[in-house]
Structures are given as structure tokens and as C-alpha cells.
Specification:
398 residues; mainly beta; Immunoglobulin-like; 3 domains; nine-stranded antiparallel beta sheet; five-stranded mixed beta sheet; 1 helix
């Protein structure tokens, strides 16, 4: 039988003394733990060098923002060399909304520098610094485009701007960090080059959603590209390119033989009709002259199935070192959008629950008095579906 979780013990007494204070604090304020405390304590595998997740600009949609400091210069000359400092080119920078560049789980909020870090799929993280305020806290699941805070000047008083970069890391505490060159779904690809502050003074404009802009076809929907939904949404469409009729399909372009619907038919489809998964809507229109135009909307995801924790018939009992133990369990399963993280309970109540949230199936245990403790988890997916609380094991502290 596969062990549902394991406990990794520190071998060095001096390390134990260094983190003892932080561990005790974690018992009271678990979500405030900054992963940098334990970066040196738990080695992990080699860091990937690229991201598979698609990023969008973190600035307000439709606004022009300028890069005032680019790659490889000034404060962007260490592990975060592929970073941008951004300011509004036309309006007010301070107080402007900062948006999540991709769906994920809030990993860190650090008030002194105004830094939010979001964990995404495939070991990708994005960092937003100098924020004046944060509208999220660690453990929150965010979707692409969600406002996570407002731009400010924390750590750089009098010089409001948004510092943004993306990095790859590994393990529960984001070890072995390495920034990656930035590219965005709006069509911007910022390749690294030579010289100081590469791409400085370039202007970027954030998009609204992942859809092709085609003359003569307009879309309307609450849905935004790259997001997952756990409820049905309507995508409406119309325009001069559909004057004689239209055909629509979720998985591929409709054929061009003839319109499936006449021009007087209401142009709208339901996401639920596509079934669970990530989908792109294809609309083929015939205009007054019979000319055909194809436009797309998406991708958008539909997921109404809650994730399921990996339960075992007979939870194992494992002795935990109470000083600095990492507790692991088997990853939950999800049908479509993927597991965003877990609420965790570790205590004496066999049916206990808590708001303690971690993004990976492992966590640093708080200081425990001698005794037996129940480990329970509740998985949450990226569409916002919440699984059942499940007991995954027992921990005996000595």
C-alpha cells in the first residue's frame, strides 16, 4: 500500500533552533508564513527553465502602461533579472488596479514591500511588488484578470510603479527560484538581449479576454478567456458578418456549406452544452454578399465536479518530530480545472476542520505537544469547487 503521507525530519540541531520561533508562530498565523524561512532547509529537484501557462498583462485592460525599467539593470540584475517596472502612460499610477496574470493560488502577501506572489500550474509563480493595498490573502484562489490589489510605492516611497516578474521554482516553499523572460497573451514577446534595462520605454496594453478580434463579429459574455467556471455562462454574438446567417461549434470550426441558423436567430450558446473541459467557441458567419468570416471566443473552462481527496482505508500512524517536520499526503484528483490547493486540519478532533490553506499536498507542521493527531484535508479546484473533508492519516508526536 502506498503511504498517504510522509514526515521528513531535520538532521541538524542548529537548523532546528533557527526555525523554532517561526514554527511556533505558524501555529497561530499559518497563512502568514513566508516560504523564504525554509528555503535552505529542504532541498528539491532541479528548477525548470520555462513556463507552459499563458500569462496576461497585470495592468488595467485597455490602458497604456510604459516599462520604466527593464531586464538586466539596476534592481533587476540578480535572480529576478527578467522583471519590468510599469507605470501608467496616460493616467494615474498610484491606486490603479493590479490584476492576476493567470489563474492560481495566492502564495505570499508581504506588507513591507507590498508583494503578492501567486502560484500557478507547472511550478510557475508571478510576483507583484510595491502594491499600496492587497484585496487577497494567502490561500485565496484567483482567476486570470482578478484584481489582487492596487499599485503603490511601498519600498520605493515617492516612486509609485508596479514591479512584475515570473519565475519557476520547486517544492512546497518555492525553492531554486529562477526568473523567465516574459511573454503575454496580448501578443507581446519580450526576448532577452544585451545591454542595461532591455525593453525600457516600450508601451503595452492589456487585453480583456482571449478571443480573436474579427471585423464584423462582436461577442458579449460574463466569461473571460483563460478562466474556469463552475456554473453555466452564456456567450452571445452578432454583427454585420452574420447578416445572412451563422453556424457555431465549441470544438472546431463549423463547415462552410451553409448557415445552420438564419440571421434572425438569436446568436448565443451555453458553455454547459460543451461539457466539462477547456473550450474555444468558433462562429462562422455569412454576410449580405455571402462572404464567410470565422471568429473565436475563448478558451473558457467548465468544471462542476469537486476534487476528491486520496483517501486510504486504514490511515497509517507515523511518528512526527515536533521541531521541524514536513507532512505530506497523496495529491487529490480533479476532473477538469485541476487542484488549486487544500484546507488542512491537524488536531485532536476526528471530524475537525480549519481555514489553514496550502497550495501543494504538503505542509510544515506546527509545533505539537506529545500526543496523537488527526490529519484531514479538503481539496479546492481552480473553478472554485470544494471537495469533502477527508481524513488522510494520523500523526503521533513524541
Amino acid at each position: 500500500m502506498e503511504r498517504p503521507f510522509a514526515v521528513i525530519r531535520s538532521r541538524a540541531q542548529d537548523r532546528r533552533a533557527q526555525v523554532q520561533h517561526s514554527i511556533r508562530s505558524l501555529a497561530r498565523f499559518r497563512w502568514l508564513l513566508i516560504p523564504l524561512i525554509v528555503l535552505a532547509l529542504f532541498p528539491f529537484s532541479a528548477t525548470p527553465t520555462h513556463a507552459s501557462a499563458q500569462l496576461w498583462l497585470p495592468t488595467p485592460p485597455g490602458e497604456r502602461w510604459k516599462i520604466i525599467q527593464g531586464y538586466g539593470c539596476g534592481t533587476h540584475n540578480s535572480w529576478d533579472r527578467y522583471a519590468f517596472d510599469l507605470v501608467s502612460a496616460d493616467g494615474k499610477t498610484y491606486g490603479a488596479p493590479a490584476r492576476a496574470a493567470a489563474e492560481g493560488t495566492v502564495f505570499v502577501w508581504e506588507g513591507k514591500s507590498g508583494t503578492i506572489i501567486i502560484r500557478h500550474a507547472d511550478n510557475l509563480f508571478t510576483q507583484y511588488t510595491h502594491l499600496a493595498t492587497a484585496t487577497v490573502r494567502p490561500g485565496d484562489v484567483v482567476r486570470r484578470g482578478d484584481v489582487i490589489g492596487t499599485v503603490g510605492d511601498r519600498g520605493t516611497k515617492g516612486n509609485p510603479h508596479l514591479h512584475f516578474h515570473a519565475f519557476m521554482a520547486s517544492g512546497a516553499w518555492a525553492s531554486n527560484r529562477k526568473t523567465i523572460p516574459l511573454s503575454f497573451a496580448e501578443g507581446y514577446d519580450f526576448a532577452p538581449g544585451n545591454g542595461c534595462s532591455q525593453h525600457q520605454n516600450e508601451v503595452v496594453v492589456a487585453g480583456e479576454r482571449a478571443m480573436a478580434s474579427v471585423a464584423g463579429v462582436q461577442f458579449s459574455s460574463e466569461a473571460q478567456g483563460g478562466r474556469w467556471y463552475n456554473h453555466d455562462v452564456t456567450v452571445a454574438f452578432g454583427g454585420t458578418a452574420l447578416a445572412r446567417g451563422w453556424s457555431a461549434g465549441w470544438t472546431s470550426e463549423p463547415n462552410g456549406d451553409a448557415p445552420a441558423q438564419t440571421a434572425d436567430a438569436v446568436g448565443q450558446v451555453q458553455l454547459a452544452a460543451a461539457g466539462q473541459g477547456l473550450h474555444t467557441l468558433h462562429v462562422r458567419g455569412w454576410d449580405q454578399n455571402g462572404q464567410q468570416t470565422v471568429a473565436t471566443f475563448g478558451p473558457i473552462g467548465y468544471d462542476v465536479t469537486a476534487p476528491v481527496a486520496n483517501e486510504t482505508a486504514e490511515p497509517q500512524i507515523i511518528t512526527a518530530n515536533t521541531a521541524d517536520a514536513v507532512v505530506r499526503w497523496n495529491a487529490a484528483q480533479d476532473a477538469a480545472s485541476g487542484v488549486a490547493g487544500y484546507r488542512v486540519y491537524l488536531g485532536a478532533d476526528a471530524n475537525g476542520t480549519s481555514e489553514w490553506f496550502v497550495p501543494a499536498p504538503e505542509t510544515l507542521a506546527p509545533a505539537l505537544a506529545p500526543g496523537s493527531y488527526t490529519l484531514r484535508v479538503q481539496p479546492i479546484d481552480f473553478a472554485g469547487n470544494i471537495g469533502a473533508w477527508t481524513t488522510v492519516g494520523q500523526v503521533v508526536a513524541q
